[in-house]
């Protein structure tokens, strides 16, 4: 397939080979330079995480007390922390946990939140009442307190911290998609689908869902960033990543006492988080445009 | 005697009004209040009336997109509101809806091909190739080109979109098309194109139309018979020639006198209606029209006039006529 037919193009070009919506979406995504920049950042960090053991200049856990809190230098590009551990190595290794945290939390909360939200929005009535009240209950707690409570029940380790962060984000996605489904299901093309005789499942998956996902995709890319920070908060409280594991949030938390003395201990993990978040956001923006047929051409 | 394809018998649709913290029912909107008519094979029945008179609700009741409160709707002698959902699906194939707003009635994320193909998928036409062929043929039938199948709805003009909407309705080879104000969202120049298309398709596919509109000129152009509705009730029903030449019901008369005349010196009739349409949640007692009627009598305020046949094929609900 070359290009989609332009408005003037006469008949029979792409008749034989129908273009798939996904290929169309990718084509318009690839045209968007900013989105590609975002994707590149994300892919870069994923590669860093995958090949961490091979590119780390030092062992990220090995203390070197003679060289503690040293500024950036030729030996330690990004300086060392309070135990003399190489910050670059820790950021590289920390990418593993931080990216995993971001992805899995958001994937979990989107899966659960959207399922509940779609069911609530589409079927309405008592189903909606029950699900919406559950969301309200979850939102009534300060989210970090709820996360602490969940980890306290499940026991402090990284996986339980992930579950806790996923749970506290469920109502955000749930309410987002519920409101979207509520408006989409009143659209006339849904009535048209019903009058054709379509069953609920097909209406849901072919009509309601594709027209409701855009805000979730954008919110999802933003949530990757907050999830990284929320897990960092749990790590800070000793409820997340356990030493000698390291994630970027834990690095931020550990360095708070040395902010004035050794600002690089905080700046570089902060930059890593910021770049990742930026990458996800740019990618999310591009994705939203690419998935909306009205933005093409 | 012609056979009725569709019979509507004393159909009522009341929407509850809920209020209070427990969502109690505090009243109801009588959107459709005891309407009866029949549609014969191959004809076009126009339904006209002001906004909120229940004409669109009737369209949705006929397709069972809404459930009736009371009364029955018989399609080919089957009461459709008594059918199981499986049998209903078979009936849906036979009657289709064309929507008012061609911008809202097409899924913006689907290409035209998918929009037209879907009715075939839903009704179990398996072969991808066969479906594609029928989509292409239908595009040409409604005056579009084959390559339009690869486009998204937003790439079309309003008139073209309405053609797509009509094509979708025709995909399952229905017998009855309910057109719910199909041209009122279009430019006047495009309206006539779409109306002519509808007429051509009617001849080609032997279709029966129920044409819902508020534009009397459009209805006259396309309809064989016309029903006039007011506040959820049918007030007059006859063939369009008679209706436009000799309207009987005072409401029909004033509606017709409100049709603009392309003559700057034309003096508007004195029959132009005054006052507002009453609320359907609290319709006037007796004849619903008596609050605005110039010829209102005492009996109109207490007794609801029966919908009766005054002369062959001419039904009116008014105390001025017949023996009510």
Could you describe the 3D structure shown?
The complex is a heterodimer of chains A (297) and B (324). With 297 residues, chain A is mainly α. Chain A has a domain at 97-295: MetI-like fold (Orthogonal Bundle), CATH 1.10.3720. Chain A has helices spanning 21-31, 33-50, 52-55, 87-123, 125-140, 143-154, 158-184, 188-196, 200-208, 214-236, 248-254, 264-291. In chain A, helix 4 (87-123) runs parallel beside helix 7 and helix 10 (214-236) runs antiparallel to helix 12. Chain A is globular and about 75 Å long. Chain A starts with 20 loop residues before the first helix and ends in a 6-residue tail after the last helix. The model of chain A is unreliable at 1-18 (pLDDT under 50). In chain B, 31% of the residues lie in helices and 25% in strands. Chain B is globular, with a radius of gyration of 21 Å. Chain B has one domain (4-316): P-loop containing nucleotide triphosphate hydrolases (Rossmann fold). In chain B, helix 3 (112-122) packs across helix 4, helix 3 runs parallel beside helix 5 (158-170) and helix 5 runs parallel beside helix 6. Classes of the chains: A mainly alpha (297), B alpha/beta (324).
Summary?
Chain B: This is ABC transporter ATP-binding protein. By secondary structure, chain A is mostly helical.
CATH fold assignment of the domain at 97-295 in chain A = MetI-like fold
End-to-end distance of chain A = 16 Å
Radius of gyration of chain B: 21 Å
> How many extended strands of chain B?
12
Order of helices and strands of chain B: EEEHEEHEHHHEHEHEEHHHEE
Assigned CATH superfamily of chain B: P-loop containing nucleotide triphosphate hydrolases
Give the end-to-end Cα distance of chain B, rounded to a whole number of Å: 27 Å
Overall structural domain count of chain B: 1
Into which percentage range does the β-strand content of chain B fall? 25-35%
CATH architecture of the domain at 97-295 in chain A: Orthogonal Bundle
């Amino acid at each position: 397939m070359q290009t989609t037919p332009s408005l003037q193009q006469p008949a029979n070009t792409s008749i034989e080979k129908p273009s798939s919506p996904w290929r169309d979406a990718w084509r318009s995504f690839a045209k968007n330079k900013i989105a590609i920049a975002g994707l590149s950042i994300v892919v870069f960090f994923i590669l860093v995480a995958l090949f961490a053991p091979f590119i780390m200049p030092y062992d990220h856990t090995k203390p070197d007390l003679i060289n503690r809190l040293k500024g950036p230098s030729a030996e330690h590009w990004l300086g060392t922390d309070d135990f003399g551990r190489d910050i670059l190595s820790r950021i590289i290794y920390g990418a593993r946990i931080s990216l995993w945290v971001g992805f899995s939390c958001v994937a979990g909360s989107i899966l659960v939140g959207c399922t509940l939200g779609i069911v609530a929005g589409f079927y309405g009535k008592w189903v909606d009442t029950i699900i919406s009240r559950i969301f309200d209950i979850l939102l009534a707690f300060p989210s970090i307190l709820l996360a602490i409570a969940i980890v306290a029940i499940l026991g402090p380790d990284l996986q339980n911290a992930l579950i806790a962060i996923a749970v506290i984000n469920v109502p955000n996605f749930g309410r987002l998609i519920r409101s979207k489904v509520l408006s989409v299901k009143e659209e006339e093309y849904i009535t048209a689908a019903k009058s054709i005789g379509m069953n609920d499942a097909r209406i849901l998956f072919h009509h309601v869902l594709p027209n409701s996902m855009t805000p979730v995709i954008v919110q999802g890319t933003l949530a990757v960033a907050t999830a990284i920070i929320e897990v960092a908060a749990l790590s800070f409280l000793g409820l997340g990543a356990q030493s000698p594991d390291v994630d970027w949030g834990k690095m931020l938390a550990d360095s708070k006492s040395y902010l004035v003395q050794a600002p690089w201990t905080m700046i570089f993990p902060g930059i890593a988080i910021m770049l990742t978040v930026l990458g996800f956001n740019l990618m999310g923006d591009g994705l939203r445009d690419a998935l909306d047929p009205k933005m093409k051409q | 005697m012609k056979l009725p394809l569709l019979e509507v018998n004393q159909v009522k649709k009341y929407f509850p009004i809920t209020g209070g913290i427990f969502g109690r029912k505090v009243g109801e909107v009588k959107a459709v209040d005891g309407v009866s008519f029949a549609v014969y094979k191959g004809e076009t029945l126009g339904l006209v009336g002001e906004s909120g008179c229940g004409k669109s609700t009737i369209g949705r009741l006929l397709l069972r997109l809404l459930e009736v409160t009371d009364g029955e709707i018989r399609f080919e002698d089957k009461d459709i509101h008594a059918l199981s959902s499986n049998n209903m699906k078979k009936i849906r194939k036979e009657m289709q809806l064309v929507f008012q707003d061609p911008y809202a009635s097409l899924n913006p994320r689907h290409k035209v091909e998918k929009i037209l193909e879907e009715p075939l998928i839903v009704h179990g036409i398996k072969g991808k190739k066969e479906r594609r062929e029928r989509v292409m043929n239908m595009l040409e039938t409604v005056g579009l080109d084959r390559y339009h199948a690869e486009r998204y709805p937003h790439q079309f003009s309003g008139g073209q979109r309405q053609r797509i909407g009509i094509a979708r309705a025709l995909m399952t080879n229905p017998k009855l098309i309910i057109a719910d104000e199909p041209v009122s969202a279009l430019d006047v120049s495009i309206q006539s194109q779409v109306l002519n298309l509808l007429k051509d398709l009617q001849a080609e596919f032997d279709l029966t139309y129920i044409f819902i509109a508020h534009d009397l000129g459009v209805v006259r152009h396309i309809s064989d018979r016309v029903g006039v509705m007011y506040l959820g009730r049918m007030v007059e029903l006859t063939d369009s020639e008679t209706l436009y030449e000799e309207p009987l019901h005072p409401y029909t008369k004033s509606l017709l006198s409100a049709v603009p005349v392309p003559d700057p010196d034309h003096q508007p009739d004195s029959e132009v209606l005054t006052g507002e349409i009453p609320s359907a949640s609290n319709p006037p007692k007796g004849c619903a029209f008596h609050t605005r009627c110039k010829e209102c009598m005492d009996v109109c305020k207490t007794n609801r006039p029966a919908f009766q046949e005054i002369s062959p094929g001419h039904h009116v609900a008014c105390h001025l006529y017949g023996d009510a």
